[in-house]
Task: inverse folding
């Protein structure tokens, strides 16, 4: 009986490992290496995502990198859904492709910050959850013009949306884990955004003095 259970777990484990491998394919890093010969990890923030790729390649590099990262998240989830994995395994697929993107083995565990592959995975699982997160992020960005902090707030809406759409607790828990990982990866950006938010208040106080 135990042997049969282990055998049944093999497809889930293989897809989770494949998802990590897909996440490791850093589009920004290889694109910059191909076009310029440079190492994206030595440019700007050192991240391999679209924003940093734009520093080396401009807007086109950012768009290509972002699309590639979204697609690898979507592909990982598509494979999980194709093999009809259990909900716990689907949750781990989301986490694995994100972990591969942020901590790619072949790049010394120095990759991107995870927004694009997470969006791709969630978009493939339930487009409503992803689109609402994007809508919230864009609205907050238009109001504040501080994209780092409020795009993260948009992503943070995903487990809440999933819960109210009736998704099971395994999926909601998986999305919570994804948010925690993304916010951890963006911790320096969060500190910088909060510092900028406090600046106007400090300037006003100094003028009053």
Result:
């Amino acid at each position: 009986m135990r042997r049969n259970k282990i055998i049944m777990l093999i497809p889930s484990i293989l897809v989770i490992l494949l998802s990590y491998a897909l996440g490791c394919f850093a589009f920004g890093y290889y694109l910059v290496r191909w076009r310029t010969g440079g190492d994206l990890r030595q440019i700007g923030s050192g991240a391999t995502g679209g924003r940093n790729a734009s520093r080396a390649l401009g807007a086109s590099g950012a768009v290509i990198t972002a699309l590639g990262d979204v697609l690898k998240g979507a592909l990982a989830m598509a494979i999980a859904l194709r093999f009809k994995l259990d909900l716990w395994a689907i949750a781990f697929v989301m986490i694995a492709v994100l972990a591969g993107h942020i901590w790619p083995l072949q790049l010394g565990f120095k990759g991107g910050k995870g927004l694009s592959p997470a969006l791709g995975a969630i978009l493939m699982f339930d487009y409503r959850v992803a689109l609402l997160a994007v809508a919230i992020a864009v609205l907050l960005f238009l109001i504040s013009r501080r994209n780092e902090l409020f795009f993260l707030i948009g992503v943070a809406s995903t487990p809440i949306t999933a819960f109210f759409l009736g998704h099971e607790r395994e999926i909601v828990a998986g999305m919570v884990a994804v948010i925690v990982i993304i916010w951890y990866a963006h911790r320096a950006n969060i500190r910088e955004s909060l510092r900028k938010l406090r600046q106007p208040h400090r300037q006003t106080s100094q003028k009053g003095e």
